[in-house]
Amino acid sequence: MELINALNWRYATKKMNGQTVPQDKVNTILEAAHLAPTSSGLQPFEIIVVTNAELKEKIKPIAFEQTQITDCSHLLIFAAWDNYTPERINEVFTRTTTERGVPADSMDDYKNRLISRFGSRTAEQNFAHAARQAYIGFGIALAAAAELKVDATPMEGFDNAALDELLNLKEKGLRSVTLLPLGYRDAENDWLVNLKKVRTPKARFITEIK
Ligand SMILES: Cc1cc2nc3c(=O)[nH]c(=O)nc-3n(C[C@H](O)[C@H](O)[C@H](O)COP(=O)(O)O)c2cc1C
């Protein structure tokens, strides 16, 4: 299967060579994340694409000086909703009923249950839920990049609050979750490139209940 070959090819690239990923490939990676399934279809996250060199230089110390931040060509920032609000939920359902051409109130029962469920939880709980949805898109983007032979480093190693401040994410009702620098491996200088991919033995990872 092509996907398995691609997942074996990819690795969490530690050193990138500065080469630019063609825009059509970046667009495909973004489209894959856009098509990710999310709980109730709410898509409670956004992706910020940074190509600006000065901004990447500012982000690097926030990401503990990881060089992929500046050596990548496109830095994807996955940012989740800081909370679920009735406005945000209503917008999703208005779009869904409009685009499907069904009566505007046809999903009201379901929608109102969601508004009530999220309304009974704290903003922090709701953000944690939204962040989990962002991880689904993040994983699919990572797999899409691998299929296109684009290198990427999945990253949680950064100061989320400092990045949110730098990008004014609070004003947009967002909080950063993960980073995904896209670029190409510098095979001669990357200590990880030739090391074996190590995973938990499948017998321990998978339990079959027949
Ligand atoms: C959510 C997440 C966060 C990660 N954060 C970082 C990071 O900040 N920096 C880094 O170099 N690698 C990071 N990694 C890479 C992991 O260490 C790596 O995926 C794991 O060791 C498996 O290796 P492989 O991706 O090369 O197969 C992260 C991976 C994931 C999935």
Largest pleated sheet: 4 strands, antiparallel
The Rg value, from CA coordinates, equals: 19 Å
Q: What's the CATH architecture name? A: 3-Layer(aba) Sandwich
Uncertain runs are none
Structural class: alpha+beta
Description:
Helix content is 46%, strand content 12%. The chain is α+β, with helices and mostly antiparallel strands and 210 residues long. The chain has one domain (2-87, 120-205): 3-Layer(aba) Sandwich (NADH Oxidase), CATH 3.40.109.10. Helix 2 packs across helix 7 and helix 5 packs antiparallel against helix 6. The structure holds flavin mononucleotide.
In summary, what is this structure?
The chain is of the alpha+beta class and 210 residues long. Helix content is 46%, strand content 12%. The model has no long low-confidence stretch (mean pLDDT 98).
Search tags:
binds flavin mononucleotide; globular; NADH Oxidase; alpha+beta; 210 residues; 9 helices; 46% helix
What is the element layout, followed by pairings?
Layout lengths: L1 H8 L13 H12 L10 E6 L2 H10 L5 H4 L2 E8 L4 H15 L7 H12 L3 H25 L3 E2 L7 H7 L7 E10 L18 H4 L5
Helix pairs in contact: 2-7, 5-6
The chain binds flavin mononucleotide.
Flavin mononucleotide binds next to loops.
